């Protein structure tokens, strides 16, 4: 017998933690709050996200700037 998996309503719980929605964070925002929103969503320090974004922007020849602007427009 195979176990049926309902994909219509995903399970938003991992262990005992409930997953949060990725949103902009206005509390710790420097520009639009994208990095602080990602940090809050992933439970890591906002400084780490900002450093990774800066390094990724330099290595990716600025492609992350476009992604940052798109996320700022898409996220609440």
Description:
This protein is mostly helical and 76 residues long. It has one domain. The protein is 46% helix and 5% strand. It is built from 3 helices and 2 strands, in the order E-E-H-H-H. It has helices at residues 34-42, 46-59, 63-74; strands spanning 13-14, 17-18. The longest helix has 14 residues, at 46-59. This is Phage shock protein PspC N-terminal domain-containing protein. InterPro entries: Phageshock_PspC_N, PspC. It is a single-pass membrane protein. The chain crosses the membrane at residues 51-75.
Describe the structure using short key phrases.
76 residues; Phageshock_PspC_N; PspC; Phage shock protein PspC N-terminal domain-containing protein; two-stranded antiparallel sheet; single chain; transmembrane helix; 5% strand; 3 helices; cell membrane; mainly alpha
Quick take:
The chain has 76 residues and is mostly helical. It has helices at 34-42, 46-59, 63-74; strands at 13-14, 17-18.
Can you lay out the helices and strands and say which pair or pack?
Blueprint lengths: L12 E2 L2 E2 L15 H9 L3 H14 L3 H12 L2
Antiparallel strand pairs: 1-2
Helix pairs in contact: 1-2
Pfam families: PspC (PF04024)
Membrane topology: Single-pass membrane protein
Subcellular location: Cell membrane
The tally of beta strands, per DSSP, is 2
**Low-pLDDT windows of residues:** 5-12
Strand content: 5-15%
Oligomer classification: single chain
The secondary-structure class comes to mainly alpha
Distance between the ends: 43 Å
What fraction, in percent, of the residue positions are helical? 40-55%
Widest beta sheet: strand line-up: 1-2
Number of domains: 1
Largest sheet data: 2 strands, antiparallel
Q: Secondary-structure element sequence? A: EEHHH
Number of helices: 3
| Mean pLDDT over the full residue set | 80
The shape, in one word, is: globular
User: What is the radius of gyration?
Assistant: 16 Å
